[in-house]
Amino acid sequence: MKGFVSDFKRMSVHDGPGIRTTVFLKGCPLRCKWCHNPENLKMTPVLSFTEKLCVGCGACAEVCRQGVHTFSFETAHKLDHEKCIACGACVEECYTGALKLYGFQAEPEEVTVKLLADRAFYEQSGGGVTFSGGEPLLQADFLVEILKELKAEGIHTAVDTCGEVPWEAFEKVLTYTDMFLYDVKHLDVKKHREWTGVPNGRILENLQNLSLAGAAVEIRTPVIPGVNDDRETLCGIAKMLSAMDNVTAWRLLPYHSMGKAKYDSIGQAYNMPEIEMPDNVFMRRLQEELKPVFARVMLSSDQY
To answer: pLDDT tens digit string along 74-124?
Structure first.
């Protein structure tokens, strides 16, 4: 069995307790307009180009058989994403890291060996491994094989999910997952569809099922001005969470637009409107107003 992996992020401190290694898996059922990992939306390899790292050596053009890379005095390095078949030949020749391929196939054993190499950091910090994406539960059969091995080694595991998958996917990994990081973006079905491309019925149903199953869940909500930062929306989420004993925390993440650079690097349009990032004063005020409804609300130093 092979799965589609995008990347590994070592020494992460925002994806669960302690120091963690985060594994990003390919594929996502949502199309959030603010998505900050667009390279993981499709379950296929994607070539990324960071112009500021390019020194114009031309090595990529020499090995590319598709004519993806061209150089001229006027445009310097130009990359045609439509011609690219994501073979990775150019990435191997790029010594500056300007080119990167997101997406490769791997067997569970390969991934597990890589993750266990950071065991010392997990043990010293109370950390572990987090699976993110994309949506890791789209590859539940692949994921559960890795989770089994990690649990056998005593490693803490977390799954970061948007919840838009069949409940059967959750059932496969429940036994081997110590905690779920669960996105709740909006309670209004029309608003949710408008901004993410899908309704939220299955997402909320799966959250209720996790509550009934007693799984430890940390809720995450990106706070996006003009989308879900109003008191009515957030208080509605708070009231829903207050009825769930298994929710360990509700983390509010301030929106940012730094993901726009990723869209540029992979040749995709960024469709999120220009909006200002919520400042610290606003976020702290939100936290204080929501605490009486759900006491375990907290602010994140990470951004969304």
So the answer is: 778 999 999 999 999 999 999 999 999 999 999 999 999 999 999 999 999
pLDDT tens for residues 12-49?
A: 999 999 999 999 999 999 999 999 999 999 999 999 99
Q: Residue 120's CB: how many other CB atoms inside 10 A?
A: 9
Q: Which residues of 139-152 are buried (b: 16+ CB within 10 A; e: fewer)?
A: bbebbbbbbbbbee
> Domains in the chain and their CATH numbers?
3-43+106-299 (3.20.20.70), 46-102 (3.30.70.20)
For residue range 204-259, what is the model confidence (pLDDT) as tens digits? Answer: 999 999 999 999 999 999 999 999 999 999 999 999 999 999 999 999 999 988 88
The amino acid occupying position 99 is L
Please tell me whether residue 126 adopts helix, strand or coil conformation: coil
Residues 6+ positions from 77 with CB-CB distance below 8 Å = 49, 51, 54, 56, 60, 69, 70, 71, 98
Cβ atoms within 10 Å of 292's Cβ, excluding its own: 10
| Residues with Cβ within 8 Å of residue 185, at least 6 apart in sequence | 32, 192, 195, 196, 200, 221, 222, 228
Interatomic CA distance for residues 249 and 290, integer angstroms: 13
pTM above 0.90, yes or no: yes
